[in-house]
Design a protein that fits this description.
The longest helix has 17 residues, at 2-18. The N and C termini lie far apart (45 Å). The protein has three helices and four strands, in the order αββββαα. It has a two-stranded antiparallel ribbon with strand order 1-2. Strands 3-4 form a two-stranded antiparallel ribbon. A hairpin with a 2-residue loop joins strand 3 (52-53) and strand 4. The chain has one domain. Helix 2 (64-77) runs antiparallel to helix 3 (82-91). With 101 residues, the protein is mainly alpha-helical.
Length: 101
Amino acid sequence: MCEMKVIKKIKRQMELERQRCQSCGMPLCYDPKGGGSEKDGRRNPDYCSFCYEDGAFKDPELTLGQMQQRARELLRKRNQPWYIRAYMAHRITTLKRWRSN
């Protein structure tokens, strides 16, 4: 019985990992608008509404370092420990928007 709980928890985490904004790393299930939008109004499945709107990034000049700092600051405000802040900042480098940088 305990193994089933662990398996369900792992599956849930894997699903969250698959459905993250590919710019900031936020799980898309937490996006109040359900994701970013294209010019024609369709939802973009890769980016959240905080990062992407009307077919473009809201802050196109944003650098990888600046995005990592934003993530650290947000997590600090939410009282996350330093190792979580460091891990999430590192994870941003694996996201679609930042892979080529």
